[in-house]
């Protein structure tokens, strides 16, 4: 099935054309990062307005690059949640309009399910698998038994991993969004220079907590000021190591506990070079198969929306014009209230 997918849950306006939920014909992402950078974070009102301004061109470009027209499109998939209400509504309205005008089936997709299914755009994965989703709003560990069949094993009790990266970067006076900047600076630093705490490492659960780590960074900065040069690199590398240590350890403990030897890491923080490296080391040491999408498919994009979208459209689970934004939508509730 040829699917047009639309994603506007946060600060990326994205559209893609994907065949059979596997083959990307186009994947256009227009980032609003520079519109929010001056505020040091995403401003919901600005996000909605920018989506409105950008989405016609982004959808047009996705069709053009795929060398198709709406006449060829057989179904529409759109992010229904979770995300910012106003931002989601822009994508939903456009998707509904196209579906209505063209008489096409429409499927609402959970953004987090799309993150953990993005890997299928590059390779097949057997079920069940464990998925660590680390992004701006999530640090969740799931057992995945199929599309629409995800169980939460653990989650962050406070900040998400991406949020921790971004907040710590802000404390260090680095430009927004800070995750990528910390990753860059850390590459020249000593990850063992500072012993930052490893929250919940030994609590026996699969939950995470990153706010204590942020507080440790804050008190270090208050005591010594913002580090510079080599010290800044050491600081970033040490912080990054602390985050990665907990993520890696809990993920592979979940693999041990469940006996599932396939691990997928997804979401924007899966771009982090130390996390990719540490995950690979741990997987090799334990004989676990590790799968991480290419960086362009880890961050927000619309092609990933087409993976579950294609499945739901083929199942006949069509949202129709009643589809409404679901600002909070835990994956365990997939299938319940899909129609809005
Ligand atoms: P969610 O998916 O939970 O709704 P989101 O869509 O805003 O949130 P993503 O776009 O998946 O999140 O990921 C963005 C996050 O990834 C940001 O916090 C960003 O700092 C972080 N990030 C991106 N690249 C890196 C990197 N190289 N190292 C660390 N963090 C990174
Ligand atoms: Mg984003
Ligand atoms: Fe995301």
From TrEMBL:
Subcellular location, record wording: Cytoplasm
EC number(s) recorded for this UniProt protein: 2.3.1.234
Pfam families per UniProt: TsaD
Annotated InterPro entries: ATPase_NBD (IPR043129), Gcp-like_dom (IPR000905), KAE1/TsaD (IPR017861), TsaD (IPR022450)
NCBIfam families documented for this protein: gcp_kae1 (TIGR00329), T6A_TsaD_YgjD (TIGR03723)
Protein family (similarity comment): Belongs to the KAE1 / TsaD family.
Family matches, as PANTHER family: TRNA N6-ADENOSINE THREONYLCARBAMOYLTRANSFERASE, TRNA N6-ADENOSINE THREONYLCARBAMOYLTRANSFERASE, MITOCHONDRIAL
Protein name stated in the entry: tRNA N6-adenosine threonylcarbamoyltransferase
